[in-house]
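REVIEWER CHECKLIST
Item 1: Sequence provided? yes
Item 2: Single chain? yes
Item 3: Sequence as submitted:
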Amino acid sequence: MNDMAAEQSLWNKDFIMLALSNLLLFMVFEMLMPILPVFISNNGGTNSQVGLIMGSFTLSAIVIRLLIGRLGGSFNKKVLLILGVTSCMLATGFYYWSNSSLSTLAIRLLHGVGFGVATTLYATFAAASIPSGRQGEGLGYFGVGETMGISVGPLLGVWLINQHGVASGFGVGTIILLFAVLCTLGISCPLATDGEAKLSPQEIQKRNLLIEHFIEKRVLLQSGLALLLGMSFAGIVSFVVLYAKEAAIPNVAYFFFVNALAGLLVRVVAGKIFDQRGPGILIGASAILCSAGTFLLAMASTTTSLIIAAALYGTGMGAVFPALQAWCINVVPTARREHAMGTLLNFFDFGIGIGAILLGAIAAMTTYSIMYMSSILFFIVYWFLYMSYGRRQNSIIAVKS
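Item 4: Structure as written out by the authors:
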């Protein structure tokens, strides 16, 4: 009886180790977001180079995600996961020794590959460690760790810059990821499920087709909206610290804190609105709030204006992203939900990558203020896209009780 209870326990050793190490991975990733642009700039990098280097991370992570399914069939998945986390740890330490934009770009590409491998396999291992019938609950708890890392990371990064200098973040990040590696070493390697074991070679080949395995065509609209959100978000994570530094606005850490807090608080209300009225009102509200926040950010000259911009932008993003996720779930069969989520997140990540490169080029040719003003165009296209195609899907959404 005790053995059976242990088997059905959600909070088993593997799940706890996976959730903790995944939290640490995301925390370091977000911690470096405000640190790296300053580091690149201090090393003589231009705004366009900042955008290219920051965006390259996301692009390399996406590419490796497209290959990880095939690699997982040829190599031990636990070994691949350990290599992914270790690559992130080594890359974080290597930044300290970089003295040019080219070497930082190479390290950033390595970091993106490791992050893409680790995030994909962490989710796979977590799903395998969750008892049958508790997948939704377990993955919900698993995602809380990511949210905590995303919220705490930027604050820690800005604090380290202010208190100990830019380079201190690389040492702290390396130590944190060492703990993540040690946690990963202690987990078990999940066995293939019976369904996987019985797949024929023809079925395996079909499953591994790019369009079938990684892209769910029924959520391309939602993913296109996420891509535009990612392009705007790239301007926030890649340049807000440099912008505040140039404009002599103190306490930029408050921007990240308020942005994260607003996003977390609005999720409770946004979920109920989606259940009652669907995604339309949230998409419209997010377009208005994020545009207003971006406009205020472009005009900001004081910490107060920065905080107000963060509250508006964080509320808009926090309200719409869970709505897009729920919308995706409602328009695909249960068996395709994982693929729908993967498509949505990859489009968002791709938006961050190309957004960082594009906005970096605009900042290099103009100013940060003009760059942020121009990024409001993303929300205009975003709203036009929804109004043109999204309302048609609203009529067939099966809102779940």
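Item 5: Key structural point noted by reviewer: DSSP finds 16 helices and no strands in the chain.
Item 6: Recommendation: ____
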